[in-house]
Amino acid sequence: MSTEALNPTLPILTAKDFASDQEIRWCPRCGDYSILAQVKKVLPTLGIPREKFVFVSGIGCSSRFPYYMNTYGFHSIHGRAPAIASGVKISRPDLQVWVITGDGDALSIGGNHLMHMLRRNMGLKVILFNNRIYGLTKGQYSPTSPVGQVTYSTPVGSIDNPLSPLCYAIGSEATFVARSVDVDIKHLTFVLERAAHHEGTAFVEVYQDCNIFNHDAFLYATDKTVKADNIVYLEHGKPLVFGKDVKKGIRLNGMHPEIVELGKGVNEDDLLFHDEKAAEPSLAFLLSRMRYPEFPEPMGIFREVSAPIYDQCVTEQIDAEIKKKGVGDFDNLFNSGDTWTVE
Amino acid sequence: MSSTAESAARPQSEKKLEQVESVVIRFCGDSGDGMQLVGTQFTNVSAAFGNDVSTLPDFPAEIRAPVGTPAGVSGFQLHFSSHDIFTPGDEVDTLVAMNPAALKTNIGDLRRGGTLIVNEDEFDKSNLQKAGYTTNPLDSEDIISKYTVHRVPMTRLNRDAVAGLGLSQKEVDRSRNIFALGLVYWLYDRDPKPTQQFLNDKFKKKPEVLEANIRALQAGTNYGFSTEAFTTHYQVPRARLAPGKYRKIAGNEATAWGLATAAHLAGKTLFFAGYPITPASDILHQLSNMKNFGVKTFQAEDEIAAMAAVCGAAFAGQIAVTASSGPGICLKGEAMGLGFMTELPMIIIDVQRGGPSTGLPTKTEQSDLLLAMFGRNGDSPLPILAACSPGDCFTLVQEAVRIAVEFMTPVIFLTDGYIANGAEPWRIPKFADLQPIQVTHPQGKLSSGQFEPETNGQATNGNGEGEHKFLAYQRNDKMARPWAIPGTPGLEHRIGGLEKADITGNVDYSPLNHHKMVNNRVNKVAGIANHIPLQEVVGPATGKLLVLSWGGTFGAVRTAVENCLAQGKSVAHAHLRYMNPFPRNLGEILKNYEQVLIPELNTGQLRLLVRAKYLVDAQGLNKIYGKPFLVHELVRKIDEMLESK
Asked: Could you count the other beta carbons within 10 Å of the beta carbon of residue B166?
């Protein structure tokens, strides 16, 4: 979508216009760099003036993100970015508000806020940088770390059952749920664009490599020699096919997905077809439960449905009340009820 | 009951009508008996008549504790008077007790010689047992000799009056409270019309219930009129209040209205985020019902989120407010620190209740002052204001908003359960007479591409061209930083909880900068002392004793000191509304008296601050009953201190 087509008076912005003058202090080769670069690439395509963007983050490596964007930004406190962003968005529905968070920030200390932000369906865009580790505090296990993972706080392996961010989001009534991975630039750009255009809360999980404390946690999904067998790209209305030669597919056996070889009596029509617009989240949830190594992990848009948008509803209620009662008059308010006069 | 002994006979009644100056009446019964409703009705009728009124609702934390037990007793006390009053009264003149448990928990407050009206029908074996009585207290010499007792079979009389409407016994008995109200309306010569109107509105969709209540009200009045037991009824003349138009206002209502008013005076939208908590929820309710004033309310998922949303709304340029009570304020501490660090204007209201922890949710206390002062990490002082009465909430919360936007800081506004739920007459202001609140936002790029030259926070590079950088932490003469809001072109900037460089607002951990920034923030708040009124004193400017109080104890302390002054005692009263920073003349005032008394509903929190700051050997009167001070308790302490020297 070209900027001029939307509004001929808008200056044409480029990724460079969204770069702040601050030195970026993530570790060299951190996955965050790629996500930052793709966001900068997507924003100029949206036809929104730069001053209308607000980036709100919590605490963690990823949460330094707003400092590197030449937009309005609020680097806040651990886990609370969804609540702070909600305050911004309810106040100013005209702003495009992005929430930048991580697996510890969003799912551990901020789990409660995340759930409520998702179910309210405000017009917020959320990127969860999932590196399955606490990086900024130097390497403790996170709510997405696998059982058995050895970290500074789990020297003999984690016994903590991990959580899938997408399962959580779908269970919290999210209207847009997607997944991508830091190094797959094209796919990440595509997913972020789709998220930016979603009117309610858009939730994007990005697999992000912490090359210091959890390097190659997602190697199975990024390494060119194996990833074709370990991930499956979701396309609306298309069957789920994957594998080096695209010879494998996902078929439903009752309520359960199973991997099948194409040919040998199985053709594409037998496979599970993706429907991101399904009103019920059952399919999206089933897909979010598919995990490596048992299954290829789905990448793309799991779900995109439309639902009433909280911040717009707030404005609509105010407008309706003004229509019904008239614009509030303070003198009338003060003089309402029983009054009396002292001479 | 103070009588002027002026009696007049009414033509239509054989009974005496006696004039009295003021009366304290308390209704008490089971929490399902509708005591708050009848108390409120009596208050409205008395206020509308022109009495000065002061109320003290007292209800249990349990919505429906076991029926008939002391735990479930709910009470409503009202002081109505023909002169200015500041408190709901020390002692009760007339006690209406709907069951034995209510009698048991309240009889201690009835003055000797006072009137006791009970619903005799409820004094059966089972109810006596639930209240812990082994015998009927109404037969005891102790009660008969001390009080004028009226044993009224209210349940039976009310059933007779309401019979034939096709209502169930349970529904019929629900109007017993209105019967009792009718009886005391007769006793105090009140006009029942406003209550009849109230019932009409409340039950317009249930004609049988309406009829039952109207009949109950009349039956109660008729009972007083016709039964021989009541020989006299009383009249409390209109109070001599300052001329003007009045209405009754409760503290939480006044706070809510004051907030909406302040936002309008500032030309801004009010954003209120809250989480349900006693006794602050009414502020959320009131504001949620003011959507046609453009008010945005947000019931957040928890106290933390409410506070965080307020930070977001403040960044987005709204008058952002949250309200809670002690336990909620504890949770908000972290985000309050963020608000302080990012230097954004916002209001945090603490309607104090009995603590610590869950404490006494429905009772009053003043024990969050030190939490408000120190409840955050780092050096993070916040301005604190404390309202002194229900009506003062309206005025002072506007002042809180003014300070917040003028100095770019969160402001804590303290009230308490007593003034939040209590009501008093309020002289209705004219909106046009209220002081506007100035807000300035720096403007961004002009259409020429240039920046507006005089805007606070704007950097220039000398030649007016090239890259301009907005300076988010460049301070003005009040040390406030500019409030640049998202959507303003050219002022894109980042804020956050990390330490920022002076002037530019970039992240900066360097030692000297941190030292400077901590001092900047602390000095900014301290400097507010130069922009608030001087402390006033009632009574002699020098003398033996200064009583220094704050918050909701104002009424009781002022009444006590005035009583002492009338007796020629050397005592003065200073009541603080600005708790941080203190008024800049407070230290001087303290030096002018031989002794200082600080009465508080806590173990001595203001006393700690005053002693630390002014090195004054202030003494305390500390009561932590969950109830306000009584005037005589204060007078006794004042006398004790005056006699000791």
From this structure: 8
Which residues of A are less than 8 Å from B315 in CB distance? 54, 72, 74, 84, 87-88
State pLDDT tens for residues A101-156.
999 999 999 999 999 999 999 999 999 999 999 999 999 999 999 999 999 999 99
Is the same domain home to B291 and B226?
A: no
**Residue A41 backbone class (left: φ over 0; alpha: ψ -120 to 50; beta: rest):** alpha
- Please give the radius of gyration of chain A, using alpha carbons only, rounded to the nearest integer: 23
Q: What is the CATH number of the domain that holds B263?
A: 3.40.50.970
Selecting from B238, B314, B494 the residue whose C-beta is nearest the C-beta of A75 gives B494
Rounded (10°) CA dihedral B425, B431, B433, B436: 120
Same domain, B282 and B227: no
Residues 29-48 of B with CB under 8 A from A: 44, 47-48
Whole-structure pTM value:
0.90
**Are residues B622 and B599 both part of a single domain?**
yes
The verdict on B83 and B153 lying in the same domain is yes
What torsion, rounded to 10 degrees, do the Cα atoms B351, B353, B358, B361 define? Answer: -100
In a shared domain, residues B179 and B260: no
Cβ atoms of B496 and A76 within 8 Å: the answer is yes
Whether residue B618 is contained in a domain is answered as yes
Residue B483 within a domain:
no
- Contact status, residue A41 vs residue A17, Cβ threshold 8 Å: no
In this structure, the strands spanning A241-242 and A339-342 are: unpaired
Q: Yes or no: say if A103 and A168 are a contact pair by the CB < 8 Å rule.
A: no
Domain that holds residue B43: 2-235
Residue B561 shares a structural domain with residue B418: no
Q: What is the pLDDT of residue B446?
A: 52
Contact call for residues B210 and B203 (beta carbons, < 8 A): yes
- Phi and psi, residue B115, nearest 5°: -100, 130
Task: Give the angle B331-B333-B336 at the CA atoms, nearest 5°.
Answer: 130
Distance from CA of A35 to the nearest CA of B (A): 19
User: How many residues make up chain A in this entry?
Assistant: 343
What whole-number distance in Å separates Cα of residue B154 and Cα of residue B160?
10
**Overall number of domains in chain B:** 3
Per CATH, the architecture of A3-217+308-318 is what? 3-Layer(aba) Sandwich (3.40)
